[in-house]
Design goal:
- The structure holds 2 protein chains of 2 kinds.
- By secondary structure, chain A is α/β, with parallel strands linked by helices.
- Chain A has a domain of about 130 residues: 3-Layer(aba) Sandwich (Rossmann fold), CATH 3.40.50.
- Helix content of chain A is about 30%, strand content about 20%.
- Chain A contains 6 helices and 9 strands.
- Chain A has a 5-stranded parallel sheet, with helices on both faces. Chain A has a 4-stranded antiparallel sheet with strand order 2-1-4-5, with no helix packed on it.
- In chain A, strand 4 and strand 5 form a beta hairpin.
- The relative contact order of chain A is 0.23.
- By secondary structure, chain B is mostly helical.
- Chain B folds into 2 domains: about 60 residues, no CATH class; about 200 residues, no CATH class.
- Chain B has 9 helices and 2 strands.
- Chain B has a two-stranded antiparallel sheet with strand order 1-2.
- The radius of gyration of chain B is 21 Å and the shape is globular.
- The chains are: A alpha/beta, B mainly alpha.
- Chains A and B meet through helix 2, strand 6 and helix 4 of A and helix 6 of B.
């Protein structure tokens, strides 16, 4: 069980959207929805400090700028829907492979996959492995961009179960999804981003 | 040394033109570029020959330095030219010139003082060709390295960002790309060294032998220069890659592809 943390997010209005303001507590899941192009992925990237922004984001009240960026991202971790790979084999992307094995079993990924090159995995296998890669780093908050977009219903359920378990351990989840049923299953609260009315 | 007559040069031009007609025949589309390169090469070399004849006759240190600076400026421009992408604004020329100037200046001064001694080290007939060879290698290495880095970065974007997102520093995230780029930049120098004398007769040595120098003396001279070339090639390649990566990222360890232009 992790100690419970709080992530505060406060973005001023932009040309596309009104101001976006919310707090995410550890052990809570907020789902972000909205039409394509409204900036959902960009919002997650800004919260992870991967894109420059004019928002105010804080971890337990301490502003993002007061952290070294790698330290911030180790704790507030963004996972892209098609996250990249950089080393020869899948296993090379993991510090301690033992942490990954139980999660792989739960998401029905054979251990043989570890010895393969990333491009030899299917897109759904890569998506699950990228999620596991992030989970083994034990962040306090996970920012997930369409985490099950490449998965069938059965594996989606397995992944959601794992996410729910992490939530139980006080991990905060911020999830972008286009899947209504998934939003219902995961969310403690939902935020819908709408395009601002053009004057 | 056997002097060439204009007739002999004209025959060589015909040979090169015949090669470019292959491009027309096989519709490979490089004849324009080849003919343009031939014209440029002839004009440039004739001008340089004339200019150097004048500079050598004057033997003025400031003139030697001025020529060196002009060569640096041209090489800095060439490093940034013909790349898949460039750094926006003045950054490309700054990175290019900083990386080749540092390595070339340092290695050239070392070479000249070693060979010519502190008194005569700016004697143009030695200083200009030696600086030119060193500069050429520095330019090639920096250029090949940057080509590797800049043409890969767009495709490797998600790989770099995945590492950053997991908490890597910009240097950790770029380390596979940095390794590949520096290796590519230093490969020509290394190939030149391992092939020297067996696969190719190095330019300086050939030139000295053609000019009547003893082959063993020419070999020693070539060894000396090759060692300097390897130093300047590695230095300019490393400098170009690290300076470019630091500009393609920021202090917050973000990937800044907005600082790149095609």
């Amino acid at each position: 069980m992790q100690t419970q943390h709080r992530l505060s997010v406060d973005f001023p209005a932009s040309a596309i959207t009104n101001a976006i303001q919310f707090d995410l507590a550890g052990g809570q899941c907020i789902v972000i929805r909205g039409p394509s192009g409204v900036g959902k992925t960009t919002l997650l990237r800004k919260i992870a400090d991967l894109d420059t922004h004019d928002g105010r984001i804080a971890f337990d009240g301490k502003p993002q700028q007061s952290f070294a960026a790698p330290e911030w991202r180790s704790d507030v971790m963004f996972v892209a829907s098609d996250a990249g790979w950089w080393a020869p084999t899948v296993a090379d992307h993991f510090g301690n492979i033992d942490d990954a094995l139980p999660l792989m079993a739960r998401m029905r990924l054979d251990t043989e996959k570890l010895g393969l090159m990333p491009h030899q995995l299917s897109s759904g296998e890569r998506q699950r492995m990228a999620l596991i890669r992030a989970l083994t780093k034990k962040p306090s908050f996970l920012l997930l961009d369409e985490p099950t977009s490449a998965l069938d219903q059965e594996t989606t359920t397995l992944v959601e179960d794992v996410l729910m378990d992490f939530k139980q351990q006080n991990i905060g989840l911020l999830v972008v999804t286009h899947n209504d049923a998934q939003a219902e299953r995961l969310a403690d609260a939902q935020i819908t981003i709408v395009k601002r009315d053009q004057p | 040394m056997i002097a060439l007559s204009p007739l002999e040069l004209a025959i060589a031009v015909l040979l090169a033109l015949a090669a470019s007609s292959l491009s027309i025949l096989l519709s490979l589309g490089f004849h324009r570029a080849l003919v343009w390169s031939i014209i440029r090469m002839i004009v440039q070399l004739l001008l340089v020959g004339t200019l150097l004849r004048f500079v050598f006759s004057q033997n003025l240190p400031w003139l030697t330095v001025l020529i060196f600076i002009a060569m640096l400026a041209a090489a800095s421009h060439e490093v940034g030219a013909r790349q898949g992408g460039r750094l926006r604004g003045p950054w490309q020329i700054l990175v290019s010139s900083a990386s080749i100037s540092l390595s070339t200046t340092f290695v050239s001064i070392f070479a000249l003082i070693t060979v010519l001694g502190t008194k005569d080290w700016l004697q143009p007939s030695h200083a200009i060709p030696i600086a030119g060879i060193i500069l050429g290698t520095a330019m090639n290495s920096a250029s090949v390295s940057l080509n590797g880095l800049l043409s890969n970065i767009i495709g490797e974007r998600s790989a770099v960002e995945a590492q950053l997102a997991l908490g890597a520093t910009r240097w950790q995230a770029f380390s596979p790309l940095i390794k590949r780029a520096v290796r590519a930049g230093t490969l020509p120098v290394m190939n030149q060294m391992v092939g020297a004398g067996i696969i190719t007769m190095p330019g300086i040595m050939s030139g000295q032998i053609l000019a009547g120098q003893d082959p063993f003396e020419a070999a020693k001279y070539q060894i000396f220069l090759m060692l300097l070339l390897s130093a300047s090639g590695v230095a300019s390649s490393v400098a170009a890659v690290y300076l470019t990566v630091s500009r393609l990222t920021d202090e917050c360890h973000r990937l800044r592809l907005d600082r790149l232009t095609s």
